[in-house]
UniProtKB/TrEMBL annotation:
It comes from Sphingobium fontiphilum. Its EC number is 3.1.4.55. It holds the Pfam family Lactamase_B_2. This is Phosphoribosyl 1,2-cyclic phosphate phosphodiesterase. PANTHER family: HYDROLASE C777.06C-RELATED, HYDROLASE C777.06C-RELATED-RELATED. Residues 36-212 form the Metallo-beta-lactamase domain. One of its GO terms (molecular function) is phosphoribosyl 1,2-cyclic phosphate phosphodiesterase activity.
Length: 263
């Protein structure tokens, strides 16, 4: 069995560097510190799923040389996770049919309101996305998906566990508390991609210590940090994180069939 992960982006809502060439504590000479907004691809040999449509989606998919998408999942409706949605048009043209898109009911309702033309069509243009409410469990192609609500300030984000045979990938971004339901969902995954915004506490995101505590409880095979701001320098983190935990970077690829990664 094979399951492949691509980190399209691993930055916070403003990316790294921030506008104004604000690199913060990140070394601008290290390419892995240049971070676009968070998004991933999970794929098997027959199925490819995109999680979130970030504002950097076009550049991310060009860099990954990807256009074949079988479905899109949204974690929530915040701009850094959804405002690249218009670029789904090119995937639609390639497929010649609307792309199946899933989100929890409240998130889907907000996306439909904001991007009505993409879901309903407008002025002679066909809809580009077939939007559906996301159940707690579903199968897309040959990938099984389980999900849970994660508290994110006053709203909820959706966390995902993707499984194909005996391989599994967890994805948890945009939460401020690790709940028992999250611990149960992500326990023992081969790879867990998990939010670690910064070292200082934040009201709607996990700080590094909170994330490391959750990793210790869930005991994934490997943990990959994402949604990092300009205070999280790649080399510094790499040198100080515990075994089995590492910072992610844009373009990181892990193939669970071979246990390899591609820079």
């Amino acid at each position: 069995m094979s399951l492949k992960l691509t980190l399209l982006g691993c930055g916070t809502s403003s990316g790294v560097p921030r506008i104004g060439n604000d690199w913060g504590d990140c070394d601008p000479a290290e390419p892995k510190n240049r971070r676009t907004r968070v998004s991933i691809i999970v794929e098997s040999p027959t199925t490819r799923i995109l999680v979130d449509t970030s504002p950097d989606m076009r550049a991310q998919l060009l860099a990954a040389d990807i256009i074949d998408i079988d479905a899109i999942l949204w974690t929530h409706d915040h701009a850094d996770h959804s405002h690249g949605l218009d670029d789904v048009r090119q995937i639609y043209h390639h497929r010649r049919s609307p792309v199946p898109g899933y989100a929890k009911r409240q998130t889907m309702a907000l996306l439909r309101r904001r991007f009505a033309y993409a879901f309903e069509g407008s002025n002679g243009y066909h809809p580009t996305i077939h939007g559906m409410d996301l159940p707690d469990r579903l199968t897309i192609g040959d990938i099984s998906i389980a999900c849970t609500d994660m508290p994110h300030g006053e709203i909820f984000s959706t966390g995902f566990r993707f499984s194909h045979g005996d391989r599994s990938i967890g994805y948890a971004t945009d939460f401020h508390e690790a709940t028992p339901a999250m611990d149960a969902l992500f326990a023992g995954v081969d790879i867990w991609v998990v939010d670690a915004l910064r070292e200082r506490p934040h009201p709607t995101h996990p700080h590094l210590s909170l994330t490391l505590d959750a990793i210790a409880r869930c005991r994934p095979g490997r943990a990959i940090l994402t949604h990092m701001d300009q205070s999280m320098d790649y080399a510094t983190l790499r040198a100080t994180l515990p075994p089995g935990v590492e910072p992610g970077y844009d373009g990181m690829v892990i193939d669970l069939a071979q246990g390899t990664r591609t820079d």
